[in-house]
Design a protein that fits this description.
Blueprint (H helix, E strand, L loop, with lengths): L7 E10 L3 E5 L11 E5 L6 E8 L6 E11 L27 H20 L7 E2 L11 E8 L5 E4 L6 E3 L6 E9 L8 E6 L2 E6 L10 H13 L6 E5 L5 H10 L4 E6 L2 H10 L6 E5 L2 H7 L7 E4 L7 H11 L3 E6 L2 H13 L2 E9 L9 E8 L1
Parallel strand pairs: 3-5, 6-18, 7-10, 13-14, 13-16, 14-15, 16-17
Antiparallel strand pairs: 1-2, 1-4, 2-3, 4-5, 7-8, 8-9, 11-12, 17-19, 18-19
Helix pairs in contact: 1-7, 2-3, 5-6, 6-7
């Protein structure tokens, strides 16, 4: 088979799909390819565009492409604020061409569609803005650049290892901690402040990149957890203890907080960040293995903030067997979120409130915080 890369077709663009692209089908003018689905970037629902294919061969179930010419524009299309965004350029941002309110509606539609298709749950979702960005720009407090062929710092193109030189990333905050490939971080450990609390974290370790994200997520998690003064709480994938610290303060000395984290460095920082709260402790190790070998006794609340692929069946089943009254699920991937919600439903946990936050403006990414209750 020969690659279709570079072939061009006019298409009518349909709905948004998970991953920052939109669904279109080739029409009869495409000959033998008529009816083939194309996932198109740099466009919007309802637009008619010329798509240049970037991946695919005849006979593939679907193709990928970029909108390289807009014939009929959506009212939600805006001038692109970043000179590095667009077909063949930096792949970091999916929605630079979309008005920010429309970006949030598109993300909400993806979450609702994934819940409906994967979990069988009909739920309208609203994606909420987060304090700390200016019209979706200058919010990212951590940046990792690669080296372009000319040695300058840059970012990778979409689905490629090619590095596009970037002199000024429009979503980078002025105070961002910047790491360039091949160079060590400027400092190994940094301090991050959330409310009155200060957290130690590795410069290259995980920390939410939107300047308003940590406080926003803490508020949403604490609201969903409803932690009481003597509760026993388990915080899984706890990182450096962002949620554990506030949960420990909520349950007080009569309660208990157990933080579980697989990354040894993050777990060590969590111990430091939880110091002064002897009713809170940290278990370092893979979450599924820790849950399997540890007798946690009574558990009232579980906070679950897994990596992008989600908690998956083994962890969900072990959490469900603890029989907490409440599970708070934090998820950065709508498909993984829907899969985990469906798994919890098998154990009798009903999806309650779902809040979604625009922690990554100009991209297709977002964060969900869901409240699951037994019965």
């Amino acid at each position: 088979m020969s690659s279709l890369r570079g072939s061009r077709f006019e298409v009518e663009v349909g709905p948004v799909a998970h991953g920052g692209h939109f669904v279109a089908r080739l029409d009869s003018s495409a000959g033998d390819l008529a009816g083939t689905v194309v996932f198109v970037r740099h466009t919007l629902p309802g637009e008619r565009v010329v798509v240049a294919l970037t991946e695919g061969e005849p006979g593939d179930r679907f193709l990928r492409g970029d909108a390289v010419e807009v014939l009929d524009a959506s009212p939600d299309r805006v001038p692109v604020p970043c000179p590095y965004a667009g077909p063949g350029a930096c792949g970091g941002c999916d929605f630079q061409h979309v008005a920010v309110p429309a970006q949030r509606r598109l993300k909400a539609a993806v979450v609702s569609e994934q819940l409906r298709r994967i979990a069988g749950i009909d739920r309208e979702v609203v994606v909420e803005p987060v304090p700390g960005d200016e019209q979706g720009l200058r919010y990212r407090t951590r940046m990792r650049f690669h080296r372009a062929a000319d040695g300058s710092p840059g970012l990778r193109a979409h689905r490629s290892r090619h590095v596009v030189p970037v002199a000024d990333c429009r979503i980078q905050a002025s105070e961002a901690l910047v790491v360039v490939e091949g160079e060590g971080p400027p400092v190994r450990v940094v301090e991050e402040r959330v409310g009155r609390e200060t957290f130690a974290v590795d410069a290259t370790g995980f920390w939410q990149v939107h300047r308003g994200a940590p406080a926003t997520l803490v508020d949403a998690v604490m609201e969903g957890a409803g932690a009481r003064r003597d509760d026993r709480v388990v915080d899984l994938y706890a990182g450096v203890g962002l949620f554990s610290v506030f949960l420990a303060d909520a349950v007080g000395a009569a309660g208990r907080v157990t933080a579980v984290e697989g990354d040894r460095s993050a777990a060590a920082h969590a111990e430091v960040n939880l110091s002064g709260r002897p009713w809170a402790h940290v278990l370092a190790g893979r979450v599924d293995k820790v849950l399997l070998r540890t007798d946690l006794g009574r558990v009232d609340v579980v906070v679950l903030d897994p990596p992008r692929e989600g908690a998956r069946r083994a962890v969900v089943e072990r959490v469900a067997r603890l029989q907490p009254r409440t599970v708070v699920l934090v998820a950065c991937d709508p498909a993984a979120f829907a899969r985990d919600a469906a798994l919890f439903a098998e154990w009798g946990y009903r999806l309650g409130q779902v809040r979604a936050f625009d922690l990554f403006p100009m991209t297709s990414h977002l964060e969900c915080v869901a409240h699951l209750v037994k019965g």
